Amino acid sequence: MAGDQATATASPALRGTIEVPADKSMSHRALILGALAKGTTSISGLLEGQDVLDTAAAVRAFGATAERCAPGEWRVTGGAWRSPPTAIDCGNSGTGVRLLMGAAAGFDLEAVFTGDRSLTRRPMDRVLAPLRTMGAEVEASEGGRLPVRLRGGRLCGIHFRNDKASAQIKSAILLAGLRSEAAVEVLEPAPSRDHSENMLRAFGCDVEVEETADGRLVRLGRQRSLTAATLQIPGDPSSAAFPLVAALISPGSNLTVRSVMVNPLRAGLFTTLAEMGADLRFLDQRSMSGEAVADIAVRSSPLRGVEVPAERAPSMIDEYPILAIAAAFARGRTVMHGIGELRVKESDRLAAILAGLAACGIEAWEEGDTLIVDGLGGPPVGGAKVLAHDDHRIAMSFLVMGLASERAISVDSANMIDTSFPGFARTMGSIGARIA
Ligand code: S3P
């Protein structure tokens, strides 16, 4: 990729077998839980994207040891967290900062949290409000933004209704509650990804889950101390989404992405693509560190527009940019409901998707929290330079679009792709994609 810009050009059929980098959500959690646990946790296949490296630096600043023994192989030794000497800079990562603030809140320490231009624009109140209820002292910058100064300590209990279906909010509360004996409960009218629950159990912590008339109730049990674990992190479905959609829209493609995590609370895109007519097969289904994993085989397929219900949004919240690309190639209209949260991700993703699609000759618009894309049933014109707004998933989505459009598509900034998918251009190149 030349400088920060990247260009994707019409490519031949995409063929081969690849792996994608490890799951970002699990990687953050593995480092944070390892840093809270007694003993030494071994992690293999950790995502070494910048977001996760920032979390590794953060847990070190809190007093844990986090060492890289070989590519993807890490050892983390936990202990009591202490006040870090300087501000904790979480870079671009909302997951990193929100989970770290939760974890730190249970300790007798003071810390300042900050991040890059994008992260300092994102709302933190959603996590700070429940942490305050639990007794942490927090001071945010204007509008509930970073930098945030947090004073942790002995916390009390909480019963929190997670109306945003946010795993980051739920996880921050659960992590804050680990050093308290009080009742800590999160009620989820719509369940969000449950990697924190699964991984806490792998570290020996009791997490109870009850299906109630009001939704899923997640509760910390009595046993809350963590003991070191051995973890292997599977491929990230949110990263697999890019080569999979690229193969679907590039005629003649036949691709397998190996070892992808397929937790049902992350699999909304796969359900949607199947409804659109995608030829997707889930092979060799197995389990890795408590999570369902499969090899996903895909063949290019004619797609049709569908209606995506709001209830599905939590299970595919990071996948709407790439779904919008699939929708542009599909025959007919795709309507995606309940996706207002896209406005407060690494960029305003709704605005970025709409501008990029318009530049590439696709009609799309928003109606409240609904995104509507009129698909062409064939390749768009392309030929545009799309603004990625320093957002990795916007950049990858429009590069994928360029692979099967009539004319090349460039994105103005592609460096941020490394936050979640280091080696994206190389991996895509290995199956025939032309990205430079
Ligand atoms: C994540 C949760 C989601 C998702 C993010 C990762 C996590 O955010 O968008 O990329 O690892 O918990 P929300 O909790 O804000 O929905």
Automatic annotation (TrEMBL):
Q: Which superkingdom?
A: Bacteria
- Which amino acids does the record list as binding phosphoenolpyruvate? K24, G94, R122, Q168, R349, R393
Name the positions where 3-phosphoshikimate binds.
K24, S25, R29, S166, Q168, D318, K345
Keyword hit for Amino-acid biosynthesis = yes
Q: In which pathway does it act?
A: Metabolic intermediate biosynthesis; chorismate biosynthesis; chorismate from D-erythrose 4-phosphate and phosphoenolpyruvate: step 6/7
User: Is Cytoplasm a UniProt keyword of this protein?
Assistant: yes
- SUPFAM superfamilies, alphabetically? EPT/RTPC-like
Q: Note one Pfam family from the annotation.
A: EPSP_synthase
Start and end residues of each Enolpyruvate transferase domain? 12-428
**Keywords tagged on the record:** Amino-acid biosynthesis, Aromatic amino acid biosynthesis, Cytoplasm, Transferase
A GO term from the CC aspect = cytoplasm
Q: Which reaction does it catalyse?
A: 3-phosphoshikimate + phosphoenolpyruvate = 5-O-(1-carboxyvinyl)-3-phosphoshikimate + phosphate
- Name its cellular compartments: Cytoplasm
Task: Tell me which EC number(s) this protein carries.
Answer: 2.5.1.19
Active site positions, chain numbering: D318 (proton acceptor)
Query: InterPro entries per the record?
Result: Enolpyruvate_Tfrase_dom, Enolpyruvate_Tfrase_sf, EPSP_synthase, EPSP_synthase_CS, RNA3'P_cycl/enolpyr_Trfase_a/b
Q: GO MF terms on file? A: 3-phosphoshikimate 1-carboxyvinyltransferase activity
Q: List this protein's GO terms for biological process.
A: amino acid biosynthetic process; aromatic amino acid family biosynthetic process; chorismate biosynthetic process
Query: Subunit composition?
Result: Monomer.
- What job does this protein perform? Catalyzes the transfer of the enolpyruvyl moiety of phosphoenolpyruvate (PEP) to the 5-hydroxyl of shikimate-3-phosphate (S3P) to produce enolpyruvyl shikimate-3-phosphate and inorganic phosphate.
Q: Which family does it belong to?
A: Belongs to the EPSP synthase family.
Which NCBIfam families does the record match to this protein?
A: aroA
In Swiss-Prot or TrEMBL terms, this protein is called: 3-phosphoshikimate 1-carboxyvinyltransferase
In its UniProt entry, the species of origin is given as Allosphingosinicella humi
Report which gene this protein is encoded by: aroA
